[in-house]
Queue: 4 jobs
Job 1
Amino acid sequence: MNTAPQNKTHNQVTKQRIKAKVFDIAEMERRRNNSHSKSNVHQNMKLFLSYLNQTDGNIELIGVNRDVLTRLMRLVLNFPNFKAVIEHYVQQMALQLLNETPYFSSDPVLIIGDAGIGKTAFCQALSTVIGTPYEVLAMSTATAGFVLSGMSPSWSEGKPGKVVESLARNRVANPLLMLDEIDKASGDARYDPIGSLYQLLENDTARNFMDEGLEITADCSYINWLATANEQQLIPAPILSRFTVFHVNSPTKDDMRKVISSIYKKIIQQNEWGRFYDKELPVCAVDKIIESSIEPRTIQKTIKTSCSKIALDYVLNKRKMKRPFCVSAAYFSINEEPWKRSIGF
């Protein structure tokens, strides 16, 4: 496992940022200065040096503490079917919290499950809790390896790939990079779109990853990888072996009731106007949301819209209203197209 500079903090993120040496700025400057101003090499070096201005190639490692650990454990309220995945990240973070300068670090994770169970929504929520940059790399549209590992500047379109570009642009060494639908990666066998993962998913080789467009090694070993897939059998065995694999099912109706209630409570707690409303969402309203089969990512918006309708009635004095307001099923007008799955998010 990588080690970061030590200091005296423990279980709290220090104000002094933790950094890691990822790029060789001196070599980038040398290559820029020794190349023609209109060449791809010059332009690539110029761009990356602008990303990394005043960093000396040392970029931030996003730290973690016990507060982050607590928020991570609470994710199970909104993603009950991801309990095993959440437990994995909690355990990985607990290891980091033993260090003087804990930072976000996890072994690569692969989530396998049917479309609509909430894989993308969970990954987004995870990155929000951790507070690290999050980028989705759509593997279903990747037809060649240069998407991840770059293309030689000797080609007219030659430029660095999305992996090193993400590190430099965000100036963070340990982002969460999500390989979406890794089982759907396709392309000519000579230009394997996931070929670079053989190196990137192993710490020892990721430390000296050579992007073909950058042509300078970068330390990619701090990256946190998370992949999603529908069908495990379509993933090459050597790639599969590099992941901790989780099979996730759709949430049950009881799970969804808990999720919807949790979302409602969060809305009420996080908004000043929430004091006007009941602390609990009525069962009839919860059931209407479940039966409507709307995409769960829109549940929060739907609830807030219903609250706004009640607020408008109250402000305009159309009728007498007792407080706290009850967000009954009558205020839910769900006009979206039915979702393909009756349960899931």
Note: Strands lie at 18-21, 58-61, 109-112, 134-138, 176-180, 209-210, 217-218, 224-229, 244-247.
Job 2
Amino acid sequence: MHTLIDIGTNLTHDSFDRDRDAVIRQAVDAGVSRMIVTGASAEGSHQAAELSKAYPGLLYATAGVHPHHAKEYLDGTTELLTELAAQPFVVAVGECGLDYFRNFSPVADQKRAFAAQLDIAVSNGKPVFLHQRDAHDDFVAIPTSRINDISGGVAHCFTGGPGEMAEYLDMGLHVGVTGWVCDERRGHDLREALPGLPRDRLLLETDAPYLVPRDFPEKMPARRNEPRVLPHILAAVAQLMERDEAEVATAATANTERLFGI
């Protein structure tokens, strides 16, 4: 059993309300020694921080506003996120970025919220936890003036191909790989890109409760993904990278510790 860190899990999601403690224990039993709980809204970031505070050394959190919620980024949101990000167990700013696939928030609001959160990351010295879907060109352009002042970051739940990955690597970003890699249909671009990903930029995540790996042998109730599934994702990544699982696990864990300071 390998020691792993899930860099992106939405453990505050209401699908975990009935058995959250058990889900966390089962992840630890599966070798997932630490988990970073994603903050995707002002309230969700507060909840992620509170949950992490209850599991010191096991859970950590991010603080941010997902582009879906960008229209909710109000005058006091920057102050709240800044206060949360100052906590030692809050290890990144985000989930922030752009999502033009659904446009639940207007593009102008998305860009405004994204830029504001990049400024928070510059001011507090923590890395960024980034989201991008169908918005690659704008996503790359917005951080350009700030990227040298940001303490690294991760392209969370990366699903793109070799070209997009190369641009993110040039920006100094790490790449977060989820169970999307286990889908030979939708995950074709990612599977093609993965062999070219340097081992020192790889991070692993489940994005639970979303993105149950298509080939996971166990039927998950209500199609709910869980952090304990991370070893299955590791196996797929190692196979595509043509590396030993232990080598990939060691690299991903070291990368996570270095980027997030945990």
Note: The mean pLDDT is 96.
Job 3
Amino acid sequence: MLSFKRWLLFAALAFSARLQAAPPLTTISDTLFNADGTPFSGVVTISWPSFEASDTSNVAAETEQIQVNGGILYVQLVPTTNANTAAIYTVQYANLGVTLSSEAWAVPPSSLPLRVRDVRVAPGAITGSGPAAATLISIADVTGLQNALNVRAVIGTGFSASRSAVIDATGAIDGAVGNLTDCLHVDGTSGPCSTFSTTFIDGETPQGTLDGSNAAFVLTNVPSPTTSLALFRNGLLLRAGGDYTVSGNNVTFQTGAVPQPNDILAASYRLSVSIPGVSFIDQETPSGPVNGVNAAYTLSQTPSPSSSLAVYRNGVRLTSGVDYTAVGNAITFGSTLVPQTGDTLLCSYRTAQ
């Protein structure tokens, strides 16, 4: 029969062996707060499935409740990120018996204490360890995967990094073919970019003597088109063909419209302006009888944008919303501003092609 001393020795050795067989632990130590900034007090419930730790220790499934006072959380857990079998901790926060929130923890091995943020798993994330040996899964093993792949575009034979992407006739994604300075068209082709000019001449003073008898004046450039010329005398828009004529860059005033000393002349016009998708309508006379009764007039096209419309009555530019309203290509004058017999109406605007 063993002596009492020997029995104590065997017991100590057995207890020491059990301690040595215990799996490694990671400490999670943090301070928890409520949304209003006050320390959290309540119960943190941590549960986990059975799993095999990295040192082959078998961890039984269990649930542990930790009382948190003043926000202080302290717990030691077996790491799961390097476990031999997949495992994750489910954590619930409760106060007064009511579950407030829940989250998942993936605990890595660490000799230093970790905070909750170090182990919290983002919603939707996949984590944990798996079997050491990889298992090959074919596309056919995943229900619906092949159909999902069939509707996704594949890389075409002409695919190249740093090129504009186009979809070829087979539905594959290819790289656009062409020079780096080319423009890409909606049909996937490429070519030289269209060029356009945007030369506008605004507020130019025609050259000529203002003496009441000289009728010939010269512009710096030739208006293109000629109808783009808007010639103002003392702020009033003059009528081409009625008050003056234009030939090249020469302006000749009609008898009775010859500028007088101290008059102010200003000319605005374009020089072969070409803007893709934009056209200009210059000094159009809207359709409708000018008889002192009719207030409704119609333009040949719809201004786009509507704010580009400029309406002149006897050379004076009218104010939209005050003197008239414009909806689409229809112009309606106010009841007290109906054009009278002999009045001249001219409209200039832009349209979208």
Note: The longest strand covers residues 98-105.
Job 4
Amino acid sequence: MKKQQMKLVPFKIESYQNMVSEIPYGVEQLQAPELWAEDEKGSGIVIAICDTGIDQNHSDLKDQIIGGRNFTEEGSADDFTDKNGHGTHVAGIIAAQANNSGVVGVAPEAKLLICKVLNSQGSGDYSSIIKGIKYATNWRGANGEKVRVINMSLGGSYNDPRMYKAILEAVAAGILVVVASGNEGDNDPNTFEYGYPALYNECITVAACDQDRKLAYFSNEHLQVDIIAAGMKVTSTYPTNTYATLSGTSMATPHVSGALALIIAIGEKQFRRTLTESEIYALLVKCCCSLGYKKSSEGNGLPELAQIYKQC
């Protein structure tokens, strides 16, 4: 019997660049720079990325990595080098550091735990995904750090109950699980496109928009969409120590993961306690602004993070 596999949500490489210097438009759309001005950059928040690994020597990322592990059959367990590019791109959107060159991520002081669950072709067994989720759930840093967000820009047609159980365990541990809605959309709001883990209600499912805040033509539409963020022509880090512009809900997902790092940091400072997964999600939703689409297309809308100060 052939093993069921999970794959990257399809994405499009628009261009490659050796050098850039910019705050990407998706970061601006979220109003993240307004929070940075208040010295809120996600410091102390750990985000796990279940993907193809990371370029560990990238100048924008090397100081952001707090740990990692390889769950594929590609290399040793401690080799989580990205041989595909996707995971490195996702990592930069979340937490590329502010170093006056390259790009800057939504939460430039957040830390990244790298779970390599997909190989160089962008695919992996469900068992690898499950191991990555469990590793992130149970991981503890040298100073007692815990993962607060898991980013999964991947998908498949098979509803694996073991994966669902692992996600439920992560959520029960207070971790927000952020996933891509998928890129099989037909630009028709009257028809729905389905995949997993996007259809799990316990996940935060992210659709994609463009620089003009218009719904991306490829973005899956269904009743479990929660949030929308930039996913068209997004520039971020890429192996090896370069940059690329990609399109896909894979790119929208890490924007929301980075936004959650900022929300957690601000919310817990204001409330002076650890917030629950549902409380953090509620703060995220309260920051959202509708782009004028159906809930099945945009969910609660696009986060505008400056609104967080009105909620705390």
Note: The mean pLDDT is 94.
